[in-house]
Amino acid sequence: MKAIPTSAQLFTCFVLSYWATKMYLPIHIIRIDERTGNIFFLAGEETIILIERNGQWR
């Protein structure tokens, strides 16, 4: 079964994409982990963000 992002994850991903590009950081990959449902977000050289199913990120 394919993991589908929640609406909270989509909103957070959009906001983080906006801020990353505003700081001129290239977004290299956005990928959903099918085991956990978390979104992996890599911007710039070393900015790694995990977006949980409830939209919280770290």
From TrEMBL:
Limits of the DUF6888 domain: 5-58
InterPro entries named among the record's database cross-references: DUF6888
Pfam families listed in its UniProt record: DUF6888
Protein name: DUF6888 domain-containing protein
